[in-house]
TrEMBL record:
Transmembrane segments: none annotated. PROSITE patterns: HTH_LYSR (PS50931). It holds the Pfam family HTH_1. This is LysR family transcriptional regulator. Residues 1-58 form the HTH lysR-type domain. Keywords: DNA-binding, Transcription, Transcription regulation. It comes from the Bacteria. It comes from Cytobacillus citreus. Belongs to the LysR transcriptional regulatory family.
Amino acid sequence: MELRHLKYFITVAKELHFSRAAELLQMAQPPLSQQIKQLEEEMGVKLFNRTQRRVELTEAGVSFYERACELLENLNFACDEAQKIHLGEKGDIILGFTGSPTFHILPRVLQVSKQEYPELKIELKELTTAEQVRALNKGEIHVGLLVPPINSNLLNIETLNEGSFVIALPKKHPLVKQGAPVDLSSLANENFLMPRRKDGPGYYDAMMNLCYQAGFEPNIILEAKQYLTFISLVSFGIGVALLPSSIKFIDREEVELMPIGNSLSNWTVSVAWNKNNRTPALQIFLKLLKKTTLYTEK
């Protein structure tokens, strides 16, 4: 039995008229009748009752028609799904991300992906830069949003955008009343909240350079991973924190984010993926990512 036999049978079963079915199939009626006869002989089942005036499905024909329609529908679905996977329009992406992209890059690319490629399934894993590099090298994630520098010969790395730092201060801090920008040297005696260097040396070093440029080494009293942890601690007056300007997108009722005067250091967000990963879904996601980050945040 061939696929064309099913298509011929389904068309005749729908029309219950060989001439009309042959016209729809763009073939002559005698060859169509012969194909249906061959199908019945191969199956050993009579599918149609034929008279000079009418064509009817037998009881076996009704059952076979239902199953044949299901089979053809499943086949069409399988072909469509395979094509979408081949084009990268359907598939699974495991996306690693670190803090700073969370508030600007990540929401936008997820929104665009949902709109343009709804069958592209994206699984999120929040990891530090160091954890992402390890996961990418092992194939545990497909792509990462992280902060350079990144030392790995196994990865492709491209810069997405860069942004400035802000200083997070409690609303009641005296410098908030003075207005922006803040001279970082005026915070030399403050207690600082900082990320751990091993989690993201590029981000950590950029913040330390800011302090060194201002003429002091920060008094670090606490280290943490999450930016929201810093915001919470700053709101209670535990200390102050240098944060990426993208954090302005989150609610921070008791914290003021102040620009820094004469700042020469920026943070950079890059995308990284394993050089051996050439799946179509990854290529589609990378195009979406670059399209949604065609700007430099200052």
